[in-house]
Specification:
The protein has helices at 2-25, 224-230, 234-244, 266-275, 293-303, 329-337, 357-366, and strands at 48-59, 65-71, 78-81, 87-90, 95-96, 107-116, 123-131, 141-144, 147-151, 154-159, 164-168, 173-176, 193-198, 207-217. It is an alpha+beta fold. A hairpin with a 5-residue loop joins β1 and β2 (65-71).
Length: 368
């Protein structure tokens, strides 16, 4: 099944390459005098909704689904990465669904992370897979409870970055994920995650709707904040490498305007800049930017002294080798060869996929 998935990825990459010239020829020129609208940055939603048809899936050594390949006329093809934190919902029965009964050709809703790779097809973390959606009713919707108030037996949930109020009362059916114990309205607190069944939403802002049913998800399940907190930032990367090196103190003048002299990672940044671990120094360090797998491989390779890999041809085994920057291929070959940063799946390195703190910890142990 892994080989089929690899073939699908290759076909997708070729199709994309063929369409780029056509897209470029249709681009409309914009006069350089045209004003640029100043827009306020919009907060990210807690999840993104995708609807598609199941084509393939990959299982781990225990038979558990770890990746689903889906296709959709509206959203295109996607690879949904499934973990033990992914919840499976039977929307028609208001219960937990059994993933082992998944079928090819089945239509599902997937609520997934806002963080995704730039690969073809894109990969992202699945928070909730919703199945068995009745034709005459809407799907259960995944929401983070941002704020909550309970007055006179009526619960008001604020979600969608303040853009939606979901009301619940004694007429709302309440369920707990994976158990037969029914929760109470008091059990729904800020920071919780719920599946909500509701109909029409008032077009006011914030939108308003009444939930016919709510399912409370376990706190450890599907929290996008936890995923984002575990993603590796540039500041986190240099701090870890600096500590690994014994926290050396260097006399080096930095030009970064966004690194304050009193921040906790200033000496780590100074040392990393002097060593050239993150490439050419510019005006900004961008400490909060996430590091992808390719960038992590390059930093680790430079930290190790930029060794020449013995088996550069290992890259030929990667179905997504063309997505790896030419300047990073020596580093990626070395990282794969030494097992410092191996492929995430058979023949897939995913160079643009965000790296996590856990991946860095494992890599540093390999360098010990």
């Amino acid at each position: 099944m892994n080989k089929k998935l690899t073939a699908i990825i290759l076909v997708g990459a070729l199709a994309c390459a063929m369409t780029v010239p056509a897209m470029a020829s249709e681009r409309t020129a914009v006069p350089i005098s045209a004003p640029i609208a100043a827009e306020e940055p919009q907060p990210l939603p807690d999840s993104v909704l995708y609807y598609g048809t199941v084509k393939e899936w990959v299982e781990d050594e225990n038979g558990a689904i770890k990746q689903i390949y889906l296709e959709s006329e509206r959203y295109g093809a996607y690879l949904m990465n499934v973990s033990e934190d992914t919840v499976w919902i039977d929307s028609g029965r208001h219960t937990q669904s059994d993933p082992s009964s998944l079928q090819k050709g089945e239509g599902v809703y997937v609520f997934h992370s806002t963080v995704e790779t730039r690969s073809l097809p894109p990969q992202t973390a699945a928070f909730a897979v919703v199945r068995n959606i009745p034709m005459d009713a809407g799907s259960a919707m995944y929401h983070e409870v941002e704020n909550v108030s309970l007055q006179d037996g009526k619960l008001t949930i604020t979600t969608d970055n303040g853009g939606l109020f979901v009301f619940a009362d004694e007429q709302t059916q309440l369920f707990s994920y994976g158990t037969d114990t029914a929760p109470s309205l008091e059990d729904i607190q800020s920071g919780s995650y719920v599946m909500a069944w509701y109909g029409a939403v008032a077009t006011s802002y914030p939108g308003q709707t009444h939930a016919s049913a709510l399912m409370v998800l376990p706190k450890q399940q599907t929290a996008e904040k936890s995923e984002k907190e575990s993603l590796l930032t540039r500041a986190g990367l240099v701090s870890a490498l600096h500590e690994k090196a014994g926290k050396p103190v260097v006399n080096y003048a930095m030009r970064y305007a966004d690194v304050n002299a009193d921040c906790s990672y200033v000496e780590a940044v100074r040392w990393a800049a002097s060593e050239g671990l993150l490439g050419k120094e510019g005006e900004s360090f961008l400490p909060d930017n996430f590091v992808n797998r390719e960038e992590l491989a390059v930093a680790l390779w430079r930290y190790a002294g930029s060794p020449t890999p013995e088996d550069y041809a290992i890259l030929n085994k990667m179905a997504d080798v063309e997505e790896i920057s030419i300047s990073a291929r020596l580093a990626v070959a070395w990282a794969c060869e030494k097992g410092v940063l191996p492929a995430i799946d058979e023949g897939i390195f995913a160079p643009q996929q965000p790296a996590s703190e856990e991946i860095l910890d494992a890599a540093l142990q390999k360098l010990s």
